[in-house]
Amino acid sequence: MPVSTSAFASTSAPAAGPSVGVPLPVLGRDVTVPLVTGGEVGYAALDHAASAPALQRVWDDIAAYAPYYGSVHRGAGYLSQLSTDLFENARGTVAAFLDCRDDDQVVFTRSTTDSLNLLAAALPADCRVLVFETEHHAALLPWPADRVTHLAAPRSPEQAVLAVSRALAAHPAGTPALVCVTGASNVTGELWPVREIAAVAHAHGARVVLDAAQLVPHHPVSVRELDVDWVAFSGHKLYAPFGAGVLAGRADWLRAADPYLAGGGASRRVSRRTDGGVHVEWHEGAARHEAGSPNVIGAYAIASACRALTDAGFDTLVPRERYLLRTLREGLAEVPQVRVLSLFGDDAARVGVVSFVVAGWNSSHFAAALSAEYGIGVRDGLFCAHPLVHTLLGGDPQTQGECGAPDAAPGEPSLNAVRVSFGVGTPDEHVERFVRAVGELVRDGARWTYRTQDGRCVPAV
Ligand SMILES: Cc1ncc(COP(=O)(O)O)c(C=O)c1O
Q: Are 393 and 265 in the same domain?
């Protein structure tokens, strides 16, 4: 079966040139950090896949709203009404950003992890779940252990679709099933064939939840076009780091489920029973799963980021990202000691997330040297996707290694990896500096000495 990523309309856009500049400014662009070798340098934040810096526009929107902040849903005062409006309107902005169906529901959560746990708590009683073992732990772990099937790592998008099709064919007809799939891997950056998986799932009567944590910051996501049932993502990866996330999609399972949290806000009416207990009528809409005082700042920040990305246009953002990704991957390809990790191969469509290992280097040591000697912030380790990294490294990955020592004897698999990731506020210089730094570190070695502290490498002084 041909598998395309054409649902992500802009993947076919040409790579832009360096002259385009930074399309959306972020906070921290003027921050300098000290180098162990002396002096200061502008901080190159290349760990967007973990948390992206706030967009300047998000910050400005929050600052403009902050004086008007008030309690949501409960207050009679003007500012409470204003805050309630902002919070409720944020749902519409997110729904438009995701191109949701008219009757979809947008629930504000704390994060992708929270969103997927909410959906896990709302599964119909006999629902089975299919999930690839390659998923981020947030998508791998929330499901009931006796009802989940873990699919082995596919080596191509076609294999992924086939694996879902085969597993669902073996599934008892008439019982509900849910397929959980990522849009873009937080380790390899590779895009998954979401639309094709959704088509196969629906043909078998199953539903699909898309973990879009790494997709929404990089690509337009259309719920209608991908035909997924739910989408989960986090504000802090979408340039809106104010503690909110989203679960958007079908209302029926959510309406039928017990409230995720019990408390005020989720309850419409609580009355005393004659036998002494209380009777609760729960809300049926999104509020059912949003008990407690909602995070209006977080929700408003997500809505602001959605508007900013829409205004900038993915038609502009995607080619720019592709240009930076090409610069980065071509730079790494020139260093023979570097091995870029990939499940689907070199030609796979991907976002600006790249993980790699360097022969002769412990990944923690390499990441520490990038930070201390070049002012570049990346991530090292297993990226909360242990089974995937295990598959990619071909060994038994570890979160720790001995600083200074290579993490693997020649010919042995590496223990963990380095991840570099960027976004809409990343200037060319950050990626260019990173490529130069990798080349210099591999060629000349670290200029400083490092020691192990709590399992991580840190500069010796
Ligand atoms: C693909 C993917 N899914 C889920 C998550 C979990 O996101 P959060 O920590 O915001 O809940 C992450 C975080 O890195 C991720 O990369």
A: no
The answer to whether residue 395 is domain-embedded is yes
Judge whether 380 and 386 are in contact, CB under 8 Å.
no
Q: Among 289, 310, 331, give the residue marking a domain's end.
A: 310
Give the Å distance between the CA of 339 and the centre of ligand 1: 24
Q: Whose CA is nearest to atom 12 of ligand 1?
A: 213
Are 203 and 304 in the same domain? yes
Domain count for the chain, please give it. Answer: 2
Same domain, 44 and 66: no
- Which residue type occupies 64? A
113 Cα nearest atom in ligand 1? 11
List the 207-211 sheet strands across, edge first: 105-109, 245-249, 230-234, 207-211, 177-182, 128-132, 148-151
Q: What is the pLDDT of residues 316-339, one digit of tens each?
A: 999 999 999 999 999 999 999 999
Q: Report the nearest-CA residue for atom 14 of ligand 1.
A: 50
CATH of the domain at 96: 3.40.640.10
Instruction: Verify that 262 and 326 share a domain, yes or no.
Output: no
The CA distance from 415 to 401, in Å, is: 7
Is 285 found in the same domain as 172? Answer: yes
What distance in angstroms lies between residue 114's CA and the mean position of ligand 1's atoms? 10
Domain enclosing residue 265, as ranges: 57-310
For the annotated catalytic residues, the residue numbers are: 384
Residues 323 and 289 in one domain: no
The binding-site residues of ligand 1, defined as CB within 6 angstroms of any ligand atom, are 49, 111-113, 136, 138-139, 182, 186, 211, 213-214, 234, 236, 384
Rounded to the nearest angstrom, the distance between the alpha carbon of 174 and the centre of ligand 1 is 32
Residue linked to tokens 């929700």:
299
Buried b / exposed e over 209-231, threshold 16 CB at 10 Å, is bbbbbbbbbbbbbbbebbbbbbb
Q: Tell me the CA–centroid distance for residue 49 and ligand 1, in Å.
A: 8
Residue 4 lies inside a defined structural domain of this protein: no
**Structure confidence by residue, pLDDT tens digits, 200-244:** 999 999 999 999 999 999 999 999 999 999 999 999 999 999 999
